[in-house]
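Input (P-type Ca(2+) transporter):
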Amino acid sequence: MTNILDRDYSQFKISLGVPSSVSKYGAKWRLAFVHIYCSRAFLSKCKHPHSMLPKAVPVKCPSFTALSIKGNDLPNTSTFNVDTAELTSLVKERNLKGIHKLGGVEAVALALETDISAGISGDPEDVSRRQRAFSFNTYKRPPSKSLFHFVVEAFKDLTILILLGCAAMSLGFGIKEHGISDGWYDGGSIFVAVFLVIAVSSLSNFRQSRQFEKLSRVSGNIQVEVVRNSRRQQVSIFEIVVGDIVCLKIGDQVPADGLFLDGHSLWVDESSMTGESDHVEVNLSSNPFLVSGTKVADGYARMIVTSVGMNTMWGEMMSSINRDETEQTPLQARLNKLTSSIGKVGLAVAFLVLVVLLVRYFTGTTKDENGNPEFVSGVSTTDDIVNGVVGIVAAAVTIIVVAIPEGLPLAVTLTLAYSMKRMMADQAMVRKLSACETMGSATTICTDKTGTLTLNQMKVTKFWVGDDSVTDTGYASVSKSILDLFRKGVALNTTGSVFRASSGTEFEFSGSPTEKAILSWAVLELNMDMEKERQKNTILQVEAFNSQKKRSGVLLRSKADGSIHIHWKGAAEMVLSMCSSYHDASGTLRNLDGDGTRKIENVIRGMAAMSLRCIAFAHKETSEAQLKEDGLTLLGLIGIKDPCRPGVKGAVEACQEAGVTIKMITGDN
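Output:
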């Protein structure tokens, strides 16, 4: 210890420039240094008590660095063993080697304190801690446009510019020729009309822009399915945090950058990011990267979120995009064309008149009130010549002013403003006045059915096994083996889930509305235990539902006897074409010949006539580990009812009376 003090004291003297020959104060310098040295050493040991223990080998530095989070004015209280910059770059750079270097996706989840099966805890404290460490899942919005911006936009209209030019010339020549008391009428009236048009248009667009910004914030708040505390639940996209496990299915938007955890047949449409129309397969081995803003085109999966908000690729791209739209509406284009044509004709006529009048004036053809020539060479004064030329030019300008319809922009603007108020009274948000004209030009409206014309609140109301209606005869009439196959097919061939906190609470179903309706029916009517069915079987292969095939299938192996089973479900007409036999209610196997097929098709048509969504279930036991699509046995059919939304009938009738054709777009039979 003494040797260490002597060595450090020597360095201390050199750094301060203390002379070695000064012996009088040497003891005091040494005493002061010992006090400082011992105090600092004592404080250091108190803060790091483990460092007082003897160590045989040097300690390695941790493989992560501390990150200073900037944004939202929140202090850095990160306790996660991960470098945020490195975590963000994994997806941005598609760094597969970096993931392997970290130990795989599971190691990333561990560093983010995420249980890959149960998710994060999801309590407010945990969510807040992750938001402080990794920021929020929100993006910078472009600044709101001011009233001045809309005034400038209104001045850019071609008709307005022509009218302003004509008004200025008319005002100048009018005052020159008739004096300020009488000469301002023509030019002044045009200026008043122009400024009325600009005021009405800019104020209306400004107000609607403010209202539309509020609406866009609400419309962007989509719900995302996540796993938190072993429970699937819907949360706002703005509440997604780093470490969340997100459940994705066909049609879902990827809410943040992340890594693929597990799933089947996942294909993603990345055209919004790359411009490429081809779908990209995402899997755990070669491409586990999921990018915010892309859409799931096929399959389903679970992902772990690694970056949110402005740290994502989508956030970077959105911050650099200028969203101004300068495209003209059809009416604006036609008016500009008309005004341009009128202006050209008016200018041509005005120029011709100007030339003729100037020639007549300078040749002495024109006479004054006394019959004398207005211009006499060598006699007319400069002032007389200027007054004569000004009068001629004023006549030419008058032709241009008369040719331009200054009342047209005002009439159009007032008409559209009135239409906008009428549309807003019907709960239609109008962002720009020109949208009223665009809507007025519509001759056909294409509308989705599910969730638009209907309430999207589905429930199974019909159940058929073969050509027997179980809804009428009761479930006791159906063979137990058939019901067992139904339970297995529903539990294992689904992207939804069933959650029940305890035996006394109600079931919670998650997934698409169709999946929730099927799961609810199977649990409440067939007494299906989804967890037990999953424990008794091993899934070998999955083909997820998509809008082209309209069906989904699963290949599984029973853990009890090792038998391999195929289960399909989907649109009734699609699944029926894959079947060669069917079961009746007693469990008897029958060939699906011409007569049998007609009976099943009549059942399907009957349910479709009642506006029911018809879903068929099929099964096959096989010896090959291959998901076959032929030679199946039809288990049965269910009919799902989706109630019509109130007011739809009246709205469709009103459109038809107005001459607007309605086209319903649906994938249902």
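Residues 185-219 form the longest helix (35 residues).
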